[in-house]
Amino acid sequence: MRAQPLHKRFFEKGTPYLYILPFFVSFAVFGLYPLLYSLQLSFSEFKFGKPLVWVGLKNFDTILSDPLFWLSLRNVIILWVGSLSVQLVVAFLLAWLLNPLASRLRGFFSGVFYLPVVMNLVAIALAFQFMFDKNFGVINLTLNLFGIESIPWLTTSQWAPISTIILIIWKGLGWYVVYILAALQSVDTTLYEAAKIDGANTLQQMIHVTLPSIRPILLFLIVLGTVAGLQIFTEPYLLFSGSSTTLGGPESSVLTPVMYIYVQGFQYLKFGPGSAIAVLLGVLIAVFSAVQFRLLQQR
Amino acid sequence: MCFPFFWMLVSSFKPPERIFSYPPEFIPTDPTLEHYADLPALIPSLGWNAVNSIALAVLTPLFGVFFSSLAGFAFAKFNFRGKHVLFAVVVLTQLIPPAAGFIPLFIEMINLRLIDTLWAVFLPGIVPAFGIFLFRQAIYSVPDELLDAGRIDGAGSFMLYRSVVIPLVMPMVLTQYILGFIGSWNNFLWPLIALAIAAELYAAGRARLAPGTAVSGHLGAQSWPARSCSRSHPSSFSWPFPNTSCPI
């Protein structure tokens, strides 16, 4: 316990509340109120200029019997697991390789990996769309040079999720590298020396010293990566903008729940069913985060 | 890692017929600036779009840093009732998916007459919860003795915040500002809804009012509220760039 510092007795009682007030006002107006209103909307029928009509579980019934909703859930799980798992493993290996480098070199490489994180996604996605083009894209043209046949990156439901995952990995990798690198730097080096004396090789050191030491940051990255991963929207939306006639890529293979909220809400103006998806997604994210916290805090 | 940037840059200098040439050209043989020259004609609102994006990206984190550092100061250096519960609320709000609130937020912004103005994008982002969390950690390590010394010299708590705390956590201030700038600059879905979609819906609502025009849609024009910011929209809808040219 810290002793009560001297200066604290001087402060007026109301001051700290005044300082935290902006957050709570802003959260109430733009966070909590929309959330509660969303809950109400999900049980109602909405028409502009008319009062809400209570319709019970009708919106949930509509959504839960909609095959596109289930497809969007399946898609987002593929995109989330496919991208997050690769990002964590690759970022860990990259950070492991960068860690012993001289600080200037390390800074340079983490800068290079971080560049896509700060780049505007609209520009990035259009560049990828351009590169993934089946007939004229630079990726297929390069594959052709080596005698490999063109891959229909953006036009078939088999390849569409893969191209989207590639874009997501490329865009987000640097964020994971920077966090894991920071964690690696704070690992107590005497632990490695002790492990060496005990005869542990590099792999054993990685498994028994490094991974346990950075577990908190990995937990943090997995939870945030999951919260973000279940809300994937911009990458598939932009990658297939203009090139696909169906909703959410070929055969809707990259339609995600957030994209479906957007479509229901702002293209069909069906605010009730749209809010029902939002509520279901919110519950799903809460459950996933809680489960991950439990699983990773044990052991 | 850098190839997409490189390819984008190289392609922008190639004449149209060379962009898709086989085998791919990695160094343009006869570079041209024609694509850059064509830009203003292709996207007439580009200038305004850029001003809007830059204004939002510069101003939003400015407010974000101020409010979140103030709250972080309160959580780090004050004792008050409910402190721990309130801080837990701050942390937990980060788990709420923003997309879950976009439909009600859209309706709310219509009711506040802020839809299709930059306010609708600016206001929700001015107190970042993650910033409060980071500033609390940073300000925690500011020694209490310095605050006591300032206090004895007669400084009020805001004076202490301004002259003692902020100079000591300057690296965090810069980090937070940059993070906020990037976040605002890359913000896509909500501006798309609050500016571009809203403008499109307004245009549809107005077209419905005109006699003899049939617009498919679910909007009753009579119930669509009056514009909060009067200006005409370009007839073509220039996705994905918000065509709002309304000054803040």
Structural overview:
The complex is a heterodimer of chains A (299) and B (248). Chain A has 299 residues and is an all-alpha fold. Helices cover 70% and strands 1% of the residues of chain A. Chain A starts with 14 loop residues before the first helix and ends with a helix. The model of chain A has no long low-confidence stretch (mean pLDDT 87). Chain A folds into two domains: 1-42, no CATH class; 58-297, Orthogonal Bundle (MetI-like fold), CATH 1.10.3720.10. Chain A has helices spanning 15-42, 58-64, 67-98, 103-118, 121-131, 138-145, 160-185, 189-197, 202-213, 215-229, 234-239, 257-267, 271-297; strands at residues 44-45, 53-54. By secondary structure, chain B is an all-alpha fold. In chain B, helix 4 (46-77) packs across helix 8 and helix 9 packs across helix 10 (157-168). The longest helix of chain B is centred in the N-terminal third of the chain and has 32 residues, at 46-77. Chain B is extended, with a radius of gyration of 24 Å. Residues 209-248 of chain B have low confidence and may be disordered. Classes of the chains: A mainly alpha (299), B mainly alpha (248). At the A-B interface, helix 1, helix 4, helix 5, helix 6 and helix 12 of A face helix 1, helix 4, helix 5, helix 6 and helix 9 of B.
